[in-house]
Every structure is written in C-alpha cells, then in structure tokens.
Amino acid sequence: MSSRSINFTFHGIGPQERFLEPGEGTVWVSTERFRSVLDAVKGRSDVRITFDDGNRSDVEIALPALLERGMTATFFVVAGRLGSDAFLTAEDLRALAAAGMRIGSHGMHHRPWREADLQEEVVTAKAVLEDALGQPITEAACPFGSYDRRVLKALKRAGYARVYTSDRGSAAPGEWLQARTSITEAGDVRSLMDPSAPSLRRRAELAAKRWR
Ligand SMILES: [Zn+2]
C-alpha cells in the first residue's frame, strides 16, 4: 500500500448550462470522460475525488455516478453562488451530505485568495455554507490554486482541518495541505496515478494549468 495518495479535481461535467469563465472550458469534461475516470479510479484506496465550483452537475451527474460505484467524494462549493442558476442550492448540499458525500468551502465569490478579502472568503463563506448545510465545514479548496502564507494563516485561524490546493502531484494522506490534480478531457488518467510516467503526467498538468 502506497504511503502517498492522489487527489483528483473535477469541475463542471456534461452539457454547459451557463457561460464559462475564461479558462474554465479546459477543465469542463464530458459525462463519458467523467465516468471513465471514475471507473479507472474505482477500488484505488489511495485516490481521492474532489469537485470544485458547486456546479449543478455535481448533483445531476456526479452524485448518481458515484453512488452507482459505491464511491464518495468531497464537493467544494462557492458560498456566494448557492441557489444561482446552474449552481447548487442549499437543499442540494444537504442531499449530497445525506448521500455520504463531504462538503467543503471554495470561498464566497470564486476569487484568487492571494488578492481577496480573506474575512469574507475564508470566514464568512464558511458560516454561510454551515448555515445552508446544518453541519460544520472543516475543509477548504483554494480557488485557482491561489494561496500564500497570509492565506494559509487565515485558513488555520478559521479552524479548517484540511486545505486543498491545485499544486498537482501526490500528497501525504494525513497532511493539512493537500495537493490536487485537475482532470481534463484528454490524457491517460492511469499515468496521473503512476509516478513512474512523468512525461504523460507533465503534459496533463500543463493542460490543466490555466484553470485550477
Ligand atoms: Zn474553482
């Protein structure tokens, strides 16, 4: 059993129901791609699945596919978008949690945290999501993979038990800061789980770089 784990990040899946942000198309994947990655990952206790941005596809496409395969995942939701068109509602959060999924914070307005008001992004967003979910929020994922010492300090002070970045590569399962790799439409996902295939892995990393 490996002492390192791999964290994968999905974003939107399937038909695009809104205008995407610049770069977001790079990480929006088809339903077929999503399902094939889940099948490749199934049974790998060293691979963890996460979802960013709180798109409606989290409940409409991801949740049933995860349940069919007996898998769980963590969903990082943008608090300020709750209930907006094409995004999750408070009720969706509770449905995800009731189905055994974890909910985390992806901030208030989907801004790079290095340049953001951290009281709003780190503290207020957590409270808004806790209110919607009716349970504590203990994990966060940095939008655009943006963080620095000030951001990490604010996250620690706000009481997050685990923070996910987009730094790619493997992570030590118990560590507070967890690197993740974004899944794109192309590329062999098995190579992303295999540290002995750096060239393929590097190519997928570069493709995912613009949207993290
Ligand atoms: Zn995001």
UniProtKB/TrEMBL annotation:
<dbReference type="InterPro" id="IPR002509">
    <property type="entry name" value="NODB_dom"/>
</dbReference>
<keyword id="KW-0732">Signal</keyword>
<protein>
    <submittedName>
        <fullName>Polysaccharide deacetylase</fullName>
    </submittedName>
</protein>
<dbReference type="InterPro" id="IPR051398">
    <property type="entry name" value="Polysacch_Deacetylase"/>
</dbReference>
<dbReference type="InterPro" id="IPR011330">
    <property type="entry name" value="Glyco_hydro/deAcase_b/a-brl"/>
</dbReference>
<dbReference type="GO" id="GO:0016810">
    <property type="term" value="F:hydrolase activity, acting on carbon-nitrogen (but not peptide) bonds"/>
</dbReference>
<feature type="domain" description="NodB homology">
    <location>
        <begin position="45"/>
        <end position="212"/>
    </location>
</feature>
<dbReference type="GO" id="GO:0005576">
    <property type="term" value="C:extracellular region"/>
</dbReference>
<dbReference type="Pfam" id="PF01522">
    <property type="entry name" value="Polysacc_deac_1"/>
</dbReference>
<dbReference type="GO" id="GO:0005975">
    <property type="term" value="P:carbohydrate metabolic process"/>
</dbReference>
